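Before a colleague's protein record goes any further, I have to sign it off. What it holds is a sequence and that sequence's fold in token form. My question to you is simply how this chain folds and whether the tokens agree. Thanks in advance; the entry in question is below:
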Amino acid sequence: MTATRTTDHPVQHPLTLVMTVRSADDRRALQAKVEALQALPRERNPVVRALDTIGTVHFARFVLLDEQRLAVITTYDGDFEAYLHDFVDHVGDVFTDLLQHVADGPPLPVQQHRQEFLDYVRRHDLGCVPPFYSAYPARTVLDIVSAGA
């Protein structure tokens, strides 16, 4: 075991954003939008391109938890607010499109309502029961990519 494995505060942070869908029609619309987005080739998927450009996200996925909830689950490096600002800058249109189908969502478009979007994500982030485990707690995405992993 290396010294980096004993780090109590990893550079990575979990996000488990769980949003309540407005209606059955909104659920169908969200599912269709997410599936269409995820079906795009990597080079044409705006979320994948943004994740590659931002360079701080280890893992990301959309999960339709049930008929009433959509989750966005990620593991990212660094500061929460900087991370969300990066998302607004790179894929704000995608979030605006998805958030129109959720109950008690922030004002839209998110690009014009950044603080409200950050507050919304904070309120709907389920977090985790600490500690957050990481096999490589001191390594950022950029560290891993530069090491050739």
